[in-house]
Structures are given as structure tokens and as C-alpha cells.
Amino acid sequence: MLVLLAGIFVVHIATVIMLFVSTIANVWMVGSSNLGTASSGLWLLCNKTCQQLPVSSRDEASLKAVQAFMILSIIFSVIALVMFIVQLFTLEKGKRFYITGAIMLVCWMCILIGVSIYTARFTGKLPEATSSHHGYCFILAWICFCFSFIIGILYLVLRKK
Predict the structure, then answer these.
(1) Contact 22, 144 (CB under 8 A)
(2) Which of 5, 80, 143, 156 could form a disulfide with 103 if both were Cys (CB 3.0 to 4.6 A apart)?
(3) Sequence ranges of the domains in the chain
(4) Helix/strand number for the chain, H first, E second
(5) CA-based Rg of the chain, rounded to a whole angstrom?
């Protein structure tokens, strides 16, 4: 049981770190332009230098929603990690980690909404690029989506022995 708890804890920490990286780094879309390789994220557009991401007024609300949901997912993931540690030392034997699982599933839902909006609105839209594809941050966000769902379900099922 201790090995299972340690494994879930390590995967949860890895998920938090990957969420930070995917939200902060500016490699959601990568493409080639006349100046070289260009990448854009949730915050900046980078060619040789980085500048504010140019977004049309029609897409501005969508970008702000993606930014907000990714930040919320980080917050809920950290809260779930803290709640897991608190419940690990305060729960009686035989009780389940319901609160931690519920918070992690809220994190899962925030990732789902944020990445889905980005996929629907910004896929293939890299300014000044001829061909574009998804970068590693986009892929990390989907991996975090999977991990947070699995961790959330495991917390709901997991019983402290």
C-alpha cells in the first residue's frame, strides 16, 4: 500500500510540474517562417525575439479563457496535492481520499476545457508561419489531462490502510 501511495504521489508531482511547464513555456504551436522557426504559446510569440502574442479581437476572449483554465488547473492540482498530504496524516484507517479525488477531477475538467478551446480556436493559426504543428507544451497538456483523470479516479477508489 505504501508503494501505491508513493507512486501516486510521484505521478501527481510530475503532473503539477508538467502543468507548470505547459502553461509557462511558449511552444504550443511551432512553425517555420522567413526568419526561422517560430513558436507561440499562451502568452508570447517567439521568432528570434519574443513579443506579445498578436490575437484578433474575435479570438481574444478564447485565449483569455485558455489562459484562465490552465492557471486554474495548476491551482487545483496543487490544492489536491496539499489535500492529499493533509488527508494522509489526518484520515482514519479505512477512509477514502474523496476530497482529493474531487479536486483532482476539477483540475482534469479545467485542463479539458482549456486545451479543447485552444484546439478549436488556435490550431494551425501561427502568425507569419507557412506550416505549423503542435509543440511539446500542447502535448504535455494532453498528457496532464490523462494523468489528472487517472489520479483523480485512483484517489476516489484508494482507501487508507
Answers:
(1) yes
(2) 80
(3) 1-29+57-125+136-160
(4) 4, 5
(5) 18
Each residue of 20-32: b (16+ CB within 10 Å) or e? bebbebbbbbbbe
- Using one digit for the tens of pLDDT, what is the confidence trace for 62-98? 999 999 999 999 999 999 999 999 988 888 877 888 8
Distance CA 83, CA 57 (A): 39
* 96 SS3 class: strand
Residue 95: name the closest of 20, 30, 5, 159 by CA: 159
The 3-state DSSP class for residue 128 equals: coil
Q: For residues 115 and 63, what is the distance between their CA atoms, to the nearest angstrom?
A: 11
Please tell me whether the overall predicted TM-score, pTM, comes out greater than 0.85 for this model. Answer: yes
| C-alpha cell, 46 | 517567439
Determine the 3-state secondary structure of 84 from DSSP.
helix
Residue 54 DSSP label:
P
Q: Name the residue among 131, 133, 129, 139 with its Cα closest to residue 45.
A: 129
Asked if 129 contacts 122 with a C-beta cutoff of 8 angstroms, the reply is: no
d(CA 114, CA 97): 26
